[in-house]
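Researcher: First entry.
Model:
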Amino acid sequence: MIKVYAMNVSGIDSYDVNLRKRLSPKRLEKVNSCRVEKNRKQSIGAELLLNYAIRNEIKAECPVIWDTDENGKLFIPNCDFNVNLSHSGDYAVCAVSDKAVGVDIQIIGKANMLLAKRFFTIDECEYINSSKNANEAFFDIWVKKESFIKAVGKGLAIPLSSFSVLGNTVSFNGVEYIFRKYSVKDLAYKLCACVSV
């Protein structure tokens, strides 16, 4: 089971006192450390989605108390559900699953082939170069790689160039992970979740 929640955060007022009361102390600290308004909106939106998703799944009290492990992976103590957050541009997303899960959203920009050569496999670079739309191909690969890394929860201890995401699945340490692509109303985004089978 996997559910992905998305929210356009452009209308959030990051200084709204009532909205801030709905955030956990850790999120408030994170929001207050953001210097850019867009980043504050994304951070608030991510936690609002997390609260909504958890309340929807297990009827938990909000704001949700969360923590991160030694690799920075988000988890909710005493909860059987796995969660993951991402944000980009005007959107925040939250994935919830009973399995290991990762999610990534990216606004589509210009394909950065220097970055691709450094972090993608040779086959992935060839796929981008032969694609009719290199920008979309680049960000298709990017969100799949990010969602996989986040699902595994080892951070960048797994080199991004050490695995290919051209297929619908990828294996790591004997565990198979499957990718699920989602669409966003605004077509300028790529969104993918990765969950263990």
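Researcher: Second entry.
Model:
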Amino acid sequence: MESKTWHFINSGKCSPSYNMALDEALMEWNRVGEIGSVLRFYEWQQPTLSIGYFQNVHKEIDLAQLEKHKLALVRRPTGGRGVLHEHELTYSVIVSEDYPAMPESVTESYRTISSGLLEGFRNLGLHAEFSIPMTDEQNEILKKPKSAVCFDAPSWYELVVEGKKVAGSAQTRQKGTILQHGAILLSLDEEKLVSLFKFQSIERQNKIRLELPEKAISIDRLINRKVTIEECVEAFSSGFEKALHIKLEPLELSDKQLNRVKEIQEAKYAADDWTYKK
């Protein structure tokens, strides 16, 4: 199969609002044909809690704990639950729904895109697999999550190692363009993560806190050493190239494009009206 060329962006550490704004801008440019498909990696200038598009800040998030831990807060354009971005590499994929070999269904396109993550973990020497919830109870949890914590349980076709979630992703589709982005865990502070959410009771919070290490795991605990961002960028960029049969070429944004990102950032992702809208 002949490899198709995709754009590649490694943004490094950016502010939370800029990270979300750039993902949205890339969707916009792909939709109008200004750019093609994109694989992007990025990091966070400060530890951040990102919440899903549909989450209610005041009902689900403990804002006092956010302040205590000096965390930023940003609302994603994608659904899903809360993610603590602290020790991780974040990826995003922007691709047209009409892209050859891209399945029409959300679930199957999720599997196709996430196959790049699967190969990336394997490049790091980890035996990763797709999660496929099979029982009625597991499927009910996907429909009605028991907590607002992303890594509380794997969804369809998320990546697991030894049965534990190692990457959390979310997807949105807007006017024919797909955005899928997610967190690749280099390390995880379970205590901090759980403290950021509100629960029906202390007992429920303690239960989630005790169960989380059995449901989620970071790369450093799987290979017993510190993994660098550079290693992950190499492993996962190669993984996406192999899985999606693509060739990555760096994309440098123009001044006009950078200004558009800042417009979206200021009007939306840096604005309280967006962050606290629910």
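Model: Note on the second entry: The first helix runs from residue 16 to 31.
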